[in-house]
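Structure ticket #2291
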Amino acid sequence: MLTPIAPSGGLDSIPKLLARNAVEFGNRPASREKEFGIWQSWTWAEVNEETRALAMGLLARGLEVGDYVAIIGNNRPALYWSMVAAQMCGAVPVPLYQDAVAEEMAYVLEHCAARFVIAEDQEQVDKVMEIADKLPVLQQMVYLDPRGMRKYDHTALHSYADVQAEGRAGRERLEPFLNQRIAALNYDSTCVMLYTSGTTGRPKGVVLSNRNIIEASRTSSEFDHLNAGDSVLAYLPMAWVGDFIFSIGQCYWNGFCVACPESQETMQADLREIGPSYFFAPPRFFEGLLTTVMIRMEDASKTKQRMFHYFLDVAKRVGGRLLDGKSVGMMDRLKYRLGELLVYGPLKNRLGMTRLRIGYTAGEAIGPEIFEFYRSLGVNLKQLYGQTEASVYVTLQPDGEVRADTVGVPAPGVEIRIGETGEVFYRSAGSFVEYYKNPESTASTKDAEGWVATGDAGYFEEGSGHLKIIDRAKDVGKMADGSLFAPKFVENKLKFYPNILEAVLFGAGRDHCVAFINIDLNAVGNWAERNNVGYASYQELAGHPQVLDTVQGHVEEVNASLADDPMLNGCQVHRFLILHKELDPDDGEMTRTRKVRRKVIEDKFADLIAALYSGVPEISTRTEVTYEDGRKGAISATLEIRDARVFERKAEAA
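Resolution: structure written out below.
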């Protein structure tokens, strides 16, 4: 195992990195936030002062070493400062998903025994108050946005500004204590606790130390040459490990600027205004963006459409080669430069990617066509493979070796081995300390030598040394005839089509596969509008005969490609239906990071699965749903079941 480099100058905690940045980058922008249409900015010196004032205020409120502080809200600079302020006091920040319902929050808050909660606004405060009777340890709540809070009982409820004011007022008394607590922090101190998404059960609290976060941030920054001149847009959930690494770990290590959008609705417009040089998004984001581009082009004039498709063909032919520094003929170079002037440049500006130097996607496979589209435009989009338990990084793609069908090579300082069953194992300085209050799961995931089981099946490609991920190891199985069943591989192929938002495959132990499909309402809705197809709801559009025909065509195209795969040709989809509702985290069908909960779906829609295998042409069903305001309801529907064409297994015929 590679030995991590000792931190220079005692930079063994996030608060100590902040103190360094306040001196070295004092007047450079550290945080930006758009509020009421105006960008606000704070320098590193100002962030240091804001964070220390809050930390002293929390000390005055009684925050002790080892306490847990829950952070709940959208991406706001003050909430990022709250996480660092908690660390300054020797406490442990625990960010929660802001869109979680009260019942989901109750488990996390009770499990970590949070004594303090720092919430963004009235909505989040109300959620915590709703479950307060389940939280006997909770003592103090701090809210950032004062709107709507005037008539609340403020005995144990305080405004963020008041806590900071209390800290500043008591600076002479409190600052020595704060300095002592910061000085006591080291590489082995807990930096943050992040909860897993809980695809198979209760979320687990992943304890990450300063060593984990700082080493992962340092090595990944060196790999991609990140520096103080870079900038990122923080819009992903703060409870997700990637956001913590990008917006705190790498940000504090390099001293670059993190900007927060005004809201999720304005995120795309804010992305264009900021024009980050470093950006991460899940495949779903890039897929949605491309769908939007193609929809807009369908509404453009014929001349613009011809120009767009001509230069897009040029980009597909040579754009990736130019990005990788490979040889390209003079004529193609000239055409590409003209395309940059007329098409690629304006399009990247529209997408907010003009200044983008490094873009990453992860979480699940991205469609090769989508991946190559962005790279052909000159966007240096790459894939990584990671986990919360790894402080994100397990593999990375080096420049010049970027491909859509692999997740790259081991990240710096990471060792990887493939187990006898094909499961991927790794160990690194970023490997988590433990699962909080769960020694059994810790021992089953991380062995005495530090090897961590990912739960994913994969293999190293001969020659290149790149890792390929097949599926979740627990989801990989066998068909009745013994052929391989790997649902995620097939689902990702289906989701490559803009019309398909989600897919769930069934077939383990059976003689053939069937599938649930969710259509993408934006893409299919736009088609309906352009073709004067009326619809009143997702359910009505999902059942339209032409939509079913289109999806059937996609399924059969996937089947044709699977027929040529000697490993997975048994996974062709024989029958499918389009679900009458979108799979939703609020209904427990997906995690907050939008990973499918297969067992929940199998149990909830058992009648639909039975119908798919029984051969009936339709099925009537009734499903309970949760509305945005938390109310429960039910929707009923009669779903058409389609048979899809399957193809001869080419490898077997040969």
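Closing remark: Residues 302-323 form the longest helix (22 residues).
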